[in-house]
Amino acid sequence: MSQSHNPSTPEPGSEQDTSYPAAHRDGDQEPGGYGQPGYLGGPGFAGYGGYGMAPPPPPRRRRGGLVITGAAALAAGALTGALLGSMHPGGTGTATAASSTVLSASQIASRVDPALVDIVSTDGYQGAEAAGTGIVLTPNGEVLTNNHVINGATSVKVTDIGNGRTYTARVVGYDASHDVAVLQLQGASGLTTANLGDSSSVQTGDAVTALGNAGGKGGTPSVAAGAVTALNQSITASEEMSGASEQLTGLIEDNANIQPGDSGGPLVNAYGQVIGMDTAASSGSQFQSQSGQDTEQAYAIPVNEAVSVAKQIEGGTTSADVHIGGTPFLGIETQGSDSGNSSGNSSGNGFGGFGGSSGSSGSSGSSGFGGFGGFGGQSGSAGVTIAGVVSGSPAAQAGLSAGDGITAVGGQSVSSAEDISHALVTYHPGDAISISWVDQAGQSQTTTVTLATGPAA
């Protein structure tokens, strides 16, 4: 869904609409992009939303994307942070001094392609799929990607471009607030790893190339050349249909033509070094500059920051933002708030969603089924209203049903789907957790449920 654009290049601090390249979606009922409506997802599946309550039609393809509702230069100085180099001793994914030779696009592709992977994540509850890109960090198959590429999947398959083999991937952990996730390819060895640069040395005007799984087609990665147009950018990204949002900061802005499916792919400098991870792009892909020329607008997470988060995940360090291991699944769909957003206010679990049905012209929509939470959700005196419950899920077994209002999770009061997401971040499949709610008769209920294994992130 295209959004209206400011006809001129925005000044720092201004608002503008842009969208995530997101994962390319494969599945039922008009699969949405990173946050668009279409799929029934699990909690925090920042990429899978919900079928809503209607039965899905036969599968079909469609591109999608998240909307960035605001982008502005931060007042703070340039990003800082030491590049951590190889994720493991002996790995080849280290930062190296820049070569004095500027490479052509084809030369960059020949050097970088073997260190990339195509990612296909599947939501087994609904048979929905999403496709994205990943960057190989270690020879034994540790892969960096966007959280929204794999959020909400019950299984993840990864094809290594370097050797052509397809692997089952395990989600090591993720940080939804920074949109970073780390995968481990099962049985992988001897993989070509990415040459990581130093994003703190990036300057406005630097030539860059974005590579990825554009369109989710797989095979040879697409190549999009451009230049850095701004540094240290802050964007508020939201679901194109629901309006659920999250802020990402410190991003590299460039004008490469990023497409759906490129999410998680590398932004590379003129010397073939990865200096960022492609994450977002303008809705409709173009803006008009002050000179009257159409320009692309894309955003990448600086590689220093992405690798720093990956290192924390690899070390098994849980925090308020970082979740280690599999995602706990509760199995609820929260009702979208009725706040009058022009695109409706469904809530895709976590920071995105395989969708979540959207309301038209501000009518309430519904998020994808989730256990790990989601942004938005209608709140009130009876807590977060449940729009639906997944059959056979822990929530269903506990007796929750549509129309009930969840008031507390794990002893923490909740008033939004985001609160539910935060309450579950430290829990894992198999953990017992208390759930409190007010049923449709107005009676308060509390029970303990055992969280199931849900979306892979």
CATH topology of the largest domain: Thrombin, subunit H
Assembly state (oligomeric): single chain
Shape call:
elongated
Estimate what percentage of residues fall within beta strands.
25-35%
Based on secondary structure, the structural category is mainly beta
Annotated CATH architecture of the largest domain: Beta Barrel
Query: Main beta sheet, described?
Result: 6 strands, antiparallel, barrel
- Domain module tally: 2
Segments where pLDDT lies below 50 for 5+ residues?
1-98, 239-244, 284-294, 336-380
What is the helix tally?
5
CATH class of the largest domain: Mainly Beta
Radius of gyration: 21 Å
Would you tell me the overall average pLDDT? 71
Spatial arrangement of strands, main beta sheet = 11-12-13-18-15-14
**How far do the termini sit from each other?**
26 Å
Total strands: 27
* Helix content class: under 10%
Give structural notes.
A hairpin with a 5-residue loop joins β25 (432-438) and β26 (444-450). The strands form five sheets. A six-stranded antiparallel β-barrel has the order 11-12-13-18-15-14. Strands 5-6-7-10-9-8 form a six-stranded antiparallel barrel. By secondary structure, the protein is mainly beta. Helices cover 8% and strands 33% of the residues. The protein has helices spanning 105-112, 147-150, 303-314, 394-398, 417-424; strands spanning 18-19, 24-27, 60-62, 66-73, 116-123, 128-136, 142-145, 155-160, 166-175, 180-185, 207-212, 222-239, 245-254, 266-269, 274-281, 287-288, 294-295, 298-302, 322-324, 328-329, 332-334, 384-389, 405-409, 412-413, 432-438, 444-450, 452-453. The relative contact order is 0.19.
